[in-house]
Amino acid sequence: MKKIIVRYWPILFIIALWFLFSSPYLLRGLVPFPSDYLVNNFAPWSAYPGFAGPVKNAATPDVITQIFPWKNLVIDMWKQGSIPLWNPYMFSGTPLLANYQSAALTPLNILYLILPFIDAWSIQVLLQPLLAGIFMYIFIRSVGVSKEGSIISALGFMFCGFITSWMVYGTLGYAILFLPLALFSIEKFYKTKKWYFLALLSISIPLSFFSGHFQTSLYFLVLVFFYATFEYITQKNLKSYILSLTSIIFGLLISALQILPSIEFYRESVRSSTYLITEIIPWSYVPTFLAPDFFGNSVTRNDWFGHYAEWNAYIGILPLLFGFYSLRKINARTIFFFITGIIAILFAFQTPLLDLIFKLKIPVLSTSAASRIIVIFSFSAAVLAGFGVDNLLHDIKDKNYKWIVLLCLGFVGIFGMLWGVVLLKLFIPNDKIFIALSNLKLPTIIFVVFLTVIFISKFVKSKKALVVLPLILILITAFDVYRFATKWQPFETRRLVYPEVPVAKFLKSTAGYDRVFANFGGEAAMMLHAPSVEGYDPLYNERYGEFILTANDGLLHLPPRSAITFSKTGEYTPEFINILGIKYFVQKKADDRQSWSFPIWTYPVDRFTKIYEDAGYQVFLNQKSFPRVLMLGDIRVVSDKKKILEAMLDEKIDLRQTAILEENIGLKIEKNASAGAVIKKYEPNRIEVETDANDQQVLLLTDPYYPGWVARVDGTPARIYRADYTFRGVVVSAGKHNVTFTYEPDSFKMGVGFGILGMLGIFGESIYLWKTKYQS
Description:
five-stranded antiparallel sheet, alpha+beta, four-stranded mixed sheet, 26 helices
């Protein structure tokens, strides 16, 4: 046991610190989910008494409105034996797997098939810093850094600002934490030529790309490629380089399962035509590299400048300091990571380089948050920290304090400038000075403690006594990053995680496939299985967004980037709520006759019927909503988008009888023929409709038209036409028929094929290396 502790004490230390961080869950049963924020601020839960209480962190709304509900739907579908391809509860229906952040393919979903959902969620969230720390440690050790330097690098990365701020999402952190594992694999393969390191490299690629954040995985992939190239340049081994690249390609082929559907979704979304780089970090935010809460913190409700989660680059004061000291002795690897860190800063901050990216209109990079590349800076700085620790300890051992003094003086100057700004009240609003002052104190104390330790070490003559110095530096770093992470991360009671309230129970038992309109978002629509016409997602069907916005004034508009809100008081809202099949209107009693509520009171008294009421909510039935499926005997062919919308809003055209198609289908349709259609089964990926008509008709399903949906009439493939601007139409002949709509996207099928090819490639390459005992 003693030998194990001596040999593996850094890993054990990382685990111990992680255990301490995770102890609210492991020992007290609290969960890493902002449930207090949910029940206090999100409908319908906020309407009911008994949930009041303080909210720790109100800066993670997307976890509530998107990430958790998506995960819940994904797991429900996996448990039902179906692939989670389609989400019927937002945007009247939208891709689920392809939206990327649902992380439908991550292997960690297995946890949810074994454990209660909230426990699987908690473990998935909390594993991030542990894996990040261990992977970083083994990578830094593989490049020759001491155990002491490696553990400080690990601490800086596992609780860096990016992983900490996004930890509760359970997506972005995983997209980057496999980076050191991939670099470790490259490093070890070049040194040992063992086949299993290339296999590990290949596997790390889909592990990142299946994690739920494409932008971060793209940064991961670029750095992996350049590191493999760096190894080739430094070691001049072309064959090993080619093998490394083929391993990366095999990993990408497996990742095509996720990438290809997402590319298809991106092309159908408004993001593909709207270029806007957001979350650019201003240079005035640099003080947070040393004092992360210099401009306040969302947890303490005193943040006043910037976007704390998006712009957070903190890795700890000492790791940052040691990162600079790595340049004391320059080698090829420190140069590589120094340049990498600088490039990341140039892309994250307002620079001509970032302006160039915007002008080039590069998909994804020119349409997303620039600041997220800051994680590459944090990673690079944490890597450099390990080298810096070794340089520092070596100089202290040799009593060479020249460069140490210069480093300390440089940071004394930086802290001096920050204190000067605060005390002289420069550049900071007077009412915010106290925030900056308070949050500068602890970083300064940590730095002063470091200076004191270094000063004392100068007078220690025994080299054996200096053994304790790296342990002190590790403890200081651990305290710093642990305090930083625990301040941000919420741990709350599990009983408040989407608790069942009366109206929720009613909707679950009533809504089915009929659409619901209420003042709540995806947090309720998906969790309560209440289909909504609205939605919030970085990707959504652009054509559907255009249709929804038309309700406002009848005109064609470019939809917003990430969210669709249906106009409650639009000129054509009364018509659109019927066309969309919105059957149930959920109204919070306290919001009655408020401007933000749907104005039921302005409609004729026979339009809405109250069918449910409790202490917090009322539910009204729309008596005139269209059925979700219609048999239409009148066809109008209109190809221009604006004219289609005009036709749909023409009072002379009865949309209960008429289908507006974009092309001439070349078939004779009998007007006013007797016909009927009934939905027999409605599942996310499959819909079954029974029709009965005495003549040929067009079956209209008011779900969005989208590539990948396939129709079959009595088992025979039938073409789906885009009807009524954004819906699906199928021609059905006279008589009784069974019409099925199934979501079978070619992009996913191709991804499966590429994935199989990638796995065969890994297997073949591994066999080749094992058989040939590759050594050169």
